[in-house]
From TrEMBL:
UniProt-annotated location(s): Cytoplasm
UniProt superkingdom: Eukaryota
N6-(pyridoxal phosphate)lysine: residues carrying this PTM: K284
An MF annotation (GO) of this entry: tRNA binding
Name recorded for this polypeptide: O-phosphoseryl-tRNA(Sec) selenium transferase
Residue numbers binding tRNA: R271, R398, K463
Pathway: Aminoacyl-tRNA biosynthesis; selenocysteinyl-tRNA(Sec) biosynthesis; selenocysteinyl-tRNA(Sec) from L-seryl-tRNA(Sec) (archaeal/eukaryal route): step 2/2
Chief site of localization: cytoplasm
EC number in record: 2.9.1.2
Catalyses which reaction(s): O-phospho-L-seryl-tRNA(Sec) + selenophosphate + H2O = L-selenocysteinyl-tRNA(Sec) + 2 phosphate
Oligomeric and partner information: Homotetramer formed by a catalytic dimer and a non-catalytic dimer serving as a binding platform that orients tRNASec for catalysis. Each tetramer binds the CCA ends of two tRNAs which point to the active sites of the catalytic dimer.
Biological process according to GO: conversion of seryl-tRNAsec to selenocys-tRNAsec; selenocysteine incorporation
Any single GO CC term annotated in Swiss-Prot or TrEMBL for this entry: cytoplasm
Amino acid sequence: MNAENVAASERLVDAAYVRQGWQGRRAHELRLRTLLEQGKCPEEGWDESTIELLLHELAIMDSNNFLGNCGVGEREGRVASQLVARRHYRLIHGIGRSGDISAVQPKAAGSSLLNKLTNSLVLDIIRLAGVRTASSCFVVPMATGMSLTLCFLTLRHKRPQAKYILWPRIDQKSCFKSMITAGFEPVVIENTLEGDELRTDLKAVETQIQDLGADNILCVHSTTSCFAPRVPDRLEELAEICAKHDIPHVVNNAYGVQSSKCMHLIQQGARRGRIDAFVQSLDKNFMVPVGGAVIAGFSDSFVQEISKMYPGRASASPSLDVLITLLSLGTKGYQQLLKERKEMFYYLSSELKKLAEAYNERLMETPHNPISLAMSLRKLDEQSGTAVTQLGSMLFTRQVSGARVVPLSSLQTLSGYTFKGFMSHTNSYHCAYLNAASAIGMSQQDADVFLKRLDKCLKTLAKGKNDDKNTPIANEEIVSETEKCSTKAAEGNAKY
Ligand SMILES: *Cc1c(COP(=O)(O)O)cnc(C)c1O
């Protein structure tokens, strides 16, 4: 509503009321203006009506929504289904231009604004979460693995001779495949065991650099967030080694934005040595659907080079989802989620420790891992060769998702590379174990229900039984457990 429209309205409705209404509207518009001027995530989350106002304003700036538009090209933002149009708030043109995912699209001023705003807000959050000197970032509509591939392909042009990537082992298929897909040869650096923890073998990294020659190495590909008992890589030391030998360094920070420790490691690495880019998943850190990642770095020109490697235009959906999410949460809401996650981590670790000890097992001591926990399954494994995998399937049947059972010595071949002890990040860990994580958005009810079901499964297995095959577990039983724990969680929450 502009001044002319307000004047016209005053002929229909009492001027005093119209002005009042206009004032009300201006408060929403003021938020939009602050957002456009500053490009920062608002401190307080917005209500849905302001967010929708922004999205409608952006959408009508795109040519597919012009009243007088006549498209005669092959990509004119036409959609057959109105349901699809609404699902995307009529932002149909996507982001980027054929040669650069960050470039402005002339047919779509609104979508281009959306893209710039989102990248700016996400950078604000990355800095707030601990990487204070990050200089730029962009959202890509590809998950983490493919986004890492894009980084490696960008480096290829700078180091045409290089064919190896030094990779401290982490048993997660997509980060391994990100190197293979980019056409490089991963050089697996086995981890060293320190107490229960698996940590980066810095000496082995140095040795490989001597043996292969720095110019033949594309980069070091390190990892922050990972399943215990592996812990985040020694980023500071790796970054120093990379700086010393002039080798690029790409960090897989898949779900690290939610942990101040992971973010601190990246900040320190960049301060003390060299980090060229760090990549994080959108869904794992920002509670949006799977499909996007953020590529960030400390040099504007390098980050821009990566965005220029992306061929063609791209989906705006991941950017739209994360923009809506950050505007709804505000920095306060996001920081609250981070705080609750950390509290839930301590809760889960102390409860899991008690449960483990009740079964003569123990919680592995992995103080450097801020998200994932591991509980030994030594006794269970000694009891029978199949008990550990049985536990995995029992948990699955009981609708426990995300818990991961790791038996000893499982052999796996990935793209021609054979990994001994696959899943455990090392050729032979000293016992079988179970992983559970406290990730952003986890509720106390999730933790309580998990602990209760794990307890039941362990009890059943301790009696030498596996009731899975005979008695399919009733849905009612699962639902009633969930309800009981939700009352308990409500009581527990009152304590915080
Ligand atoms: C999730 C994850 C990835 C990437 O998975 P995508 O499906 O490609 O997003 C890579 N490494 C680790 C450690 C992860 O947790």
